[in-house]
Each structure stands twice: as structure tokens, then as C-alpha cells.
Amino acid sequence: MNEPDWKHLNAVPLPLQEFQLQLEQNGVNAKQLEEWRKIPVLYQLALEELKNKIKLIQTEWKLMDGFSPIEHIKTRIKEPHSIVEKVRRKGYEVTLDNILREIHDIAGMRVVCAFVKDIYRLMDHLRTREDIRILEIKDYIAQPKPNGYQSLHVIVEVPLILFEGTRWIKVEIQLRTLAMDFWASMEHILYYKFDKKVPEHVVNGLSEAARATYELDQKMLKLRGEILSLSEEQEQADSPEHPTAAESSSKTLSLATDHTESRPQTC
């Protein structure tokens, strides 16, 4: 299964007491708890900071192009038990330093675009920004996972200006199309439906659906190219520099008349 648990999408962080309780239940001692107090707040602030940056990009695109290729944005904070399990699975002791260094997806953002080209356009823009550090890119669009999963995963760092100074907080961004997002959501539901023990024929069906998703994205991208091309031709035809056939005929007649009237009179 590739889809993280996004059931708390756009939710506020867990209340501090509940967060600490979950940590205690997962073996985090009292001394370490004090270090953890800032964790949910810092990552939520980092998500808000990054979300504002993406929304600014949306606004700029609307001003430049008349529309934004970004369909929607979702965010989530990883549950404490998932954080602890992942640290242990990696073979590390559950400490704040290990978590901050080794776990890159405590804060997660999903950006859904209409077309594949828009994903790479957004990625290219993020590369140019000085207020975002790109640490790692995994392109599961160019190289899908064996089960067909497609998405562009990017680990970034976002600066938070605090009283103690600037801290760079890691956030995982998943960039995908509407079709990819639909497939991933259905795959997630099916895996939980079968308690992660999915029958082989269902796995094969998901792989076929993933191929269909890819073909759909490519077809829609081709159609968009054709529409944009037709739109450009129409704009050129409607522009003053490209008069209509009737206007051209009228202008030719007018020039001919002017030319006739300007001829010298002969006896």
C-alpha cells in the first residue's frame, strides 16, 4: 500500500495532551515528552507557510494565464503512533533528534493539478524559489511503482522565523493529477477493505486501472494542446493585424478606387 493515512486532512493538530498521551502509550518517556511539545505546532505552522506560498503561485498563474492549473491542496500531520513506528522500523531510538533527521513526512501536502505538464511546471517553479529548499525528489510518474502508483514526491524544507531564530522544517509534497489522485484513493480504500491482504485479481485490476489512468492523462493533455492551438488560431484571426475575408475584400476595393481616382486625366 502506498497511500498514507489522510483521514485527518485539513484538520487542526491533535490537542497537546492527547498528543502526549499517544506518545506515552508508544513508549516515549517523560523527559523526551518535554522536547516533543513543539512538534505538532511547528509542523502545522510549516504546512500553513507552504500552503500560503502555493496559493500565491495559484494567484500569479491566474493573473498571467487567466486560470490556475492547481485544482486543490490538502494537508495532514502524521499521527504520533505512526511517527514512533516509522522511527523504530528504521532502527532508531525514539528521540526528537532522530525524528527530525530521519522522518521526512510528518507534515504532508498533496497538490492536485489538472494535467501532467502542470505538475512539472510547478516543480520547475519551486526549484527557483529561495524560500524553499528542495531536499529530495522521487518521480513515480516517470517511473511508476510496480502496482501502478503514480505521483511526484518532493521533500522540501520551509523556513519558520521564530524568536529563537529561523528553523527549517521538512514537508513532503505529493504532486499528482486528478486521475492519479482518484486511482490512489481507490487503491487506499481497497487495501483497507481487505485488511491489506488484497486478492491477486484485484491487484491485477488495479494495475490495469493505473495504465488506463496514464492513458487518460495523456489523452487529456493532447486534447488540451489541440484546444490551445485552435484558440491561438482564433485569436490571430480576430486580431486587427489579421482582417477577415470581408474586411480584406473591402480594403482591396477601396485601394482600387483610390488608385483609379488618382490617375491623371487624358484628353
UniProtKB/TrEMBL annotation:
Start and end residues of each stretch annotated as Disordered: 231-267
GO molecular-function terms, A-Z: kinase activity
Tagged with keyword Transcription regulation: no
Composition bias, Polar residues: 246-257
Pathway: Purine metabolism; ppGpp biosynthesis; ppGpp from GTP: step 1/2
Pfam families in alphabetical order: RelA_SpoT (PF04607)
CDD domains: NT_Rel-Spo_like
Keyword check for Transferase: yes
GO biological process, one term: guanosine tetraphosphate biosynthetic process
Domain RelA/SpoT: 75-198
Keyword terms of this UniProt record: Kinase, Transferase
Biased composition (Basic and acidic residues): 258-267
Transmembrane segments: none
Official protein name in the record: GTP pyrophosphokinase
Lineage: Bacteria, Bacillati, Bacillota, Bacilli, Bacillales
